[in-house]
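SEQUENCE-TO-STRUCTURE ENTRY
===========================
What this section holds: a protein sequence and its matching fold, both as plain text.
Question of interest: how does this chain fold, as expressed in backbone structure tokens?
***
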Amino acid sequence: MASEENNTKHIRPSWDEYFMSLADTVSHRATCDRGRSGCVIARDKQLLVTGYVGSPIGLQHCDEVGHQMKQVIHEDGKITNHCVRTVHAEQNALCQAAKQGVSVDGATLYCRMTPCRTCAMLIINCGIVRVVCERKYHAGAESEEMFRLAGVKLEYFHDEVQQYEKQ
């Protein structure tokens, strides 16, 4: 009743907003400060699994020992930097689905930015039909093309590149 007294009406988030906010909450468990990402996979308005960026079980995290950086030189000569100590949020969500015996076929994946090339290939092969990202990834053009060719619908909340240190 308090909202009526204040003449403010509660506005429920859309399903996409709801699941994206859950992905953001999951990201608070991430252990790499370059892109504290979280991911959720949902189907039929039901949460299936979550994942966040972090080192493999039993190995040290970036937050503990620092980043393990690798440079990638792209065909166009552009150089990008990547921390390879961690498993991506999307990969961890897919691993959780496999460990728990949860099918993600026909599901929607929610994440912070365009999945990388490897994540995109896994997403396609798992049968996920839709990917919703908060923002674009600075090296995500190849993934965008793979999703297009595979018929995976890709949507963005914001049509801008996610910014973080040492891209």
About this structure: Helices lie at 2-5, 15-27, 62-65, 89-100, 117-125, 141-150. The mean pLDDT is 91. DSSP finds six helices and seven strands in the chain. Residues 15-27 form the longest helix (13 residues).
